[in-house]
Structures are given as C-alpha cells and as structure tokens.
C-alpha cells in the first residue's frame, strides 16, 4: 500500500463521458456535454454522440476539464525539500547549460501522485541553481521511467537573472532594500556566455565540440526557448534586451512580479509571462496587499499571454486554486482556467496536443465532482493521460484513510 501506483495501461477501447459540464480550455462551456476518445485521441466534443463500441462513463452533474499543465517545476527532482539527499535539482557551478533535467526525473516520486490527483497531468521539469541552470523537458506524470514520460525533450534553457536588490535578514544591521554588489559582475558573465554561444552557433567547422555551447545552439535557431527567471521591472527589460541583442528568438519571463509595470514593453516584444507564487506577499511595503492576486488580471487585460506556476514542487498541487484566486481578483473564471491549460500549452509550445478539449488532440482529461478552481468543491473522480485511466490513489489519501479508520475504531 505504500508504493506509488503503477502506470496505467494503454487505452484498448473507446470511452464516452456523458452528461457533464465541459470546460474546453478555450473559454467555452458546454452544458450536458459529451466527450469521446479512442486510442488516446479525442474523437468528439459536443452534446450528441452515439457509438455502441464505446464504453460509457456517466459523469452527470460533474465537470470536465483539460489536464492541467505545470510549467517550470522541480516536481520529480525534489522529494523532501528539507532533506538535501533526496533532491537532485541542480549541478555545481554557475554556468551549466548542458545539464538535462529530464534524466534525473524520478517517476517513482511519492509527490507526483499527490499532484496528479489534483488534476495536474503534464509538467515542464526544469533544473535549478547557478545562472544558466540547464535544459527543461516536458513530461506526462504517469510513466515507468523518464524515457516513457517524455512529451518534448529539451524544450528550453533556464537563465536565473541575478537580483539587483535584496532585503537583508532580520538579524542584519542593514535595513531596507540593498543594492547587490555582485549584480553587474554576474550580468557580465551572462553577456559573455551569450556572446560565446552565439558565435559558436555560427561556426561551421567544429572539430572538438564544446558541450555547454552545443546545448545552447538551438536558442539561436528558435527551436528552444529561453526562460528568464526574473522579477524586477528594470531587470526584465535588461534581460530581454540582452537576449535580443544576441538574436535569441523565443523568450519567456518566469516569476514576473513587476511585469505588470512594463506591459507595453512586453506586448511590443511579444513576451509571455509565467507568474510564480500567486499566494504570496507583496514585494514592497507600499504595494497593495492583494497585488499578487491581481497581477494576472493586470497582465491579461494588457494583452499579455499569461500562465501560472509555483516555485515549490510540493505546493504545486494547489495550481488549480491559484487560478481560482486570480479569478476572484479580476478575471473571468474561464480565462483563469486558460492560465493553467491552453495559455501554458502555447507558452511551452505543446498546444497542438494539450491544453484544450478538441477533436484530434490528446485525451488528457480530468473529471471533477465540483468546480476545479474552488478547493471547497474540487474532487477529481477520473483522470486520463492519452486516454489511459490514471490511478488517483496517493500517500495523502492512504494516510487519511489509515488515521480516519484508527479514530473511528
């Protein structure tokens, strides 16, 4: 009973989900809807479908959503955050673009089923640490090993931009925001790395490959994205301009606490934002208490493509509730849903397969007894990845049952 559930078998016959409220991830809702899928692919979405070869699952009164997508996460690399021996999420050194996070992805993690049972079925697993921390990959969360889990390998590089300002600890005699003395030094390191990588990408006769530079070549061809982890408004502008200076084509801002201050710049440069940690405090004393909840609406209303994520692997299970929070602070609920489904799929470049419920796309689907974005009503009853029926048991539910039985007896 303490083991992680075995991965589901491939779909062998068509499945028909009937009678539910369907949220298709495009902002549309279908009442008393029907969704059919076969061989892992959606074959029908609407209100009227009949095929005797399909197995019917009655979902009357329930709600159907696309499988949720968790970007920029260490889920599967981190088991117990407070126990360093259980974490395999970073490499020593500051410049490690050749690191491939997916080869350390642990499909036997006990944390993954707790996240999966809350509707999160697709993840972008990324490394952390240093300045250039390495490459991320996109995986599905029900597999025997990392090779089986891969949806898209090496989708992007992750650059952690240095902080220009910091708040000293409470024991420090320094008070208020302080300017980092090492900021400009690390910015120069980033520029020299990008300069070398661009030059290397143009070389035609390389006799001895340089593996860090090889790993960065696809940034300049546009096949991989550069995910820049940065919060401060001026630093966002500096980071984007530097990446553009060296002809990097696809840029995504991760974190983006101050992104709402520079929406014109982001829109002009077509830069999407993955907002991190909706449930957090404001960065500055003068900011409104609810600013972290309203940032998503401020960005979306300005025409920026926005997705949501969380910096903690264990807390990422609350992803649907972060969308619920931004829905309560200025966003339509279907627009908030897009920030954890179709918007994120577009930002990661997997929108042809995931993110919405449409004919021809992957049957990666979740069924909830109530509103998925409301922690009071959300209860996942069925989940499918590529049409495979996923086991929703996990260590949390096992312990709940164990101690419930103990005290009832």
TrEMBL record:
Residues 298-388 form the Amidohydrolase-related domain. This is Amidohydrolase family protein. It comes from the Bacteria. InterPro entries: Amidohydro-rel (IPR006680), Metal-dep_hydrolase_composite (IPR011059), Metal_Hydrolase (IPR032466), Metallo-dep_Hydrolase (IPR051781). It holds the Pfam family Amidohydro_1. It comes from Flammeovirga kamogawensis.
